[in-house]
Amino acid sequence: MALVYDTFNIVSVGMSCQAAFQIEKGQKFLDRNVGEKGRIKRTPFDWLIAPPRALAKVLDTNRFFPDSPDALTHVRGKVYYWDDMRLWFFHTPNLIERFDEFRSKFDHLAENFAALARKPTIGVWSNTQRNLTPSLTVPPLDPLARQADLAALDAAFKARLPNSHMFNVVRKGRMDEGDPLPHGTFVTYDDREPPRSWEGDAGVWRTKLRQMLNDPQVTALRGQSTPQSATV
After folding, report:
1. Containing structural domain, residue 132
2. Is residue 85 in a domain?
3. Which superkingdom, per the lineage (predicted)?
4. How does pLDDT run across 47-79, given as a tens digit for each residue?
5. Which of 54, 71, 169, 217 is 20 to 30 Å from the Cα of 154, by its Cα?
6. Which of 9-13, 111-115, 217-221 has the lowest mean pLDDT?
């Protein structure tokens, strides 16, 4: 989902629905610090589970939904796997039977995302959702953050939204030490949630959103000549 303000946007770009949920949940905090009420716009990434390379491919090809229901595999319940993009639709009941309905919906969501290019945009990526484990999906999900993968996502995101900045929130212990993110390109998230929890800790997330608003690249993107510190 995206929060659209007069001069900039904030949008979740996966890898799961937690960032979208917490941005919306934290809207009052964000509005207070921005100084205006943001408008919520739904985007294609709200209810997906998609690793960075999958999201980069979606953006590079401008394909937010498959061309045919034959491209989908029903995993269980409301979960469907799109093999071409290596991502999962996670809250789409009867997706194959309602394929045309969902395709129209995702076309609209893609238009909402494209419209963000009119303003500077902050993309929020996270792998913080506690239940993002290999056993959650078929085929198994790899939730680790890697510099090469997030660089690919960053390039694809900037190709679609040239005046943008990616803010990465990485769960403690979920970085590939063989390809770590450079210092200063991410913030670390930790909580004490139950293992199967998906929502995240609102207090911890508020801290991360405060760090985002105070990030020098974000304040520059927003056109602030003097950075303004976000408050509680």
Report:
1. 2-62+110-174+188-200+207-214
2. no
3. Bacteria
4. 899 999 999 999 999 999 999 999 999 999 999
5. 71
6. 217-221
